From TrEMBL:
The gene is rols. Coiled coil: none annotated. The keyword Nucleotide-binding does not apply. This is Rolling pebbles. Residues 144-214 form the TANC1/2-like winged helix domain. Residues 48-142 form the TANC1/2-like AAA+ ATPase lid domain. Pfam families: AAA_lid_TANC1, WHD_TANC1.
Amino acid sequence: RPDYGHTITSFLARHITEMPSWLKVVATVRTQFLELTKQLPYSRLSLDESDNVNKDLLEYFNARVQAAPIIETNIKCSTGKSEGVHNSVMKFAQYVLHLSQGSFLFLKLILDLLERSHIVVKSTNYKVVPISLAQIFLLQFNLRFPTVQSFEKVTHILSVCLSALYPLTLVEIYYSVNSLLVNTFLPWDEFCHRFESLTDFLVKRIDNTYMFFH
């Protein structure tokens, strides 16, 4: 919900009578927030009750494994003597598909970690595998910023982007960061260097503003 103005739901509810009949609206909502759609007279389709989501996730998993053999290599490490490589990979696939709960983002980030060898599955209990998006992002931050000092260099950038009511341009972020500094001034080159370390977390939009990838 924004700090001001309409939410997506309230906007649709207010303007639905003004929309032309040829305009088709496809809106998605998480199951736990289903109450938000009560005021919308749309037809509903539950993906939770469809097997197509898991089929799509499995196809995506297989495509990534075929495109990057290192993923399979990092899963093979969990293969026991009585278990073949293929069975080991498929067992792992079913495990992460269950954890994903239909989230392509979760599956993508897990496979990214495997492809970069940031996690290597060494046993069948999969203890090294994050079980939620929060754990994945925490792991990524720990890998990117292994010390307190390295993280402190980007805290002001993160603070500005998190508190902004709308996506900011790079220049706007730069001036906002410097407004937080009392006794020092952050040069542009140093700012750009620090900003680059957040490349995977802050993505550039088509209008040259930046938003968090999540």
